[in-house]
Specification:
The complex is a heterodimer of chains A (about 120) and B (about 110). Chain A has about 120 residues and is mainly beta. Chain A has no helices and 11 strands. In chain B, the strands form 2 sheets. In chain B, strands 2, 4, 5, 6, 9, 10 and 11 form a 7-stranded mixed β-sheet that branches. A 4-stranded antiparallel β-sheet of chain B has the order 1-3-8-7, with no helix packed on it. In chain B, a hairpin with a 6-residue loop joins strand 4 and strand 5. The chains are: A mainly beta (about 120), B mainly beta (about 110). The interface between A and B is medium-sized, with 26 and 28 residues.
């Protein structure tokens, strides 16, 4: 079982604040990292798939960076809005064994944005 | 359309019951997945089907029996479950099952075993 850690566990911010959280994963045997956004009672929604060290991805006000050598990824949200309230999950894919997409998830960071 | 549908949304069953969970996608994806999420824990992979063949079974007990009748449909047959099997069961699909493919998730079936 691979250990994927996310911090903080929960975060409460005011509308307009920018925020960031961390996903830590084993730096050896890295293949890819996936980020998901999961609103209560909805389907997890894919945000990014990251593969290369130094990768930066952006989708609207959300961006992510990747450091495979030290085993972490940051997710940033600029100018948080109440509709950004969700749990943000990262999932690690290891470079060994099956070539199929076996995701190892972290527990997620639960973000609440207050108006 | 990037929708994965799952039925039922909620299911309550006794330990002697037999029930099935259903998952459907019409994106032409050739890989489909079952995940299980217990309370306060991350989702954990159970099974992967690739081109309608079972490719990964993460040592799941035989009381869970997956089936992929065609490329759009994935079932999970449940029999003689235990209360500790109560969880959210998520289905996902991806284009080819590659490790960099985005996995598209359904909303899940909330299962309670009495």
């Amino acid at each position: 079982i691979l250990n994927v850690e996310q911090s903080p566990q929960s975060l409460h911010v005011q509308e307009g604040d920018s925020t960031n959280f961390t996903c830590s994963f084993p730096s050896s045997n890295f293949y890819a990292l996936h980020w998901y956004r999961w609103e209560t009672a909805k389907s997890p929604e894919a945000l990014f798939v990251m593969t290369l060290n130094g990768d930066e991805k952006k989708k609207g006000r959300i961006s992510a960076t990747l450091n495979t050598k030290e085993g972490y990824s940051y997710l940033y949200i600029k100018g948080s809005q109440p509709e950004d309230s969700a749990t943000y999950l990262c999932a690690f894919i290891v470079d060994r064994g099956s070539t199929l997409g076996r995701l190892y998830f972290g527990r997620g960071t639960q973000l609440t944005v207050w108006p | 359309d990037t929708e994965v549908t799952q039925t039922p949304k909620h299911l309550v069953m006794g330990m002697t019951n037999k029930k099935s969970l259903k998952c459907e996608q019409h994106m032409g994806h050739r890989a489909m997945y079952w995940y299980k999420q217990k309370a306060k824990k991350p989702p954990e992979l159970m099974f992967v089907y690739s081109y309608e063949k079972l490719s990964i079974n993460e040592s799941v007990p035989s009381r869970f029996s997956p089936e992929c009748p065609n490329s759009s449909l994935l079932n999970l047959h449940l029999h003689a479950l235990q209360p500790e099997d109560s969880a959210l069961y998520l289905c996902a699909s991806s284009q080819l099952g590659l490790r960099t493919d985005t996995q598209y998730f359904g909303p899940g079936t909330r299962l309670t075993v009495l």
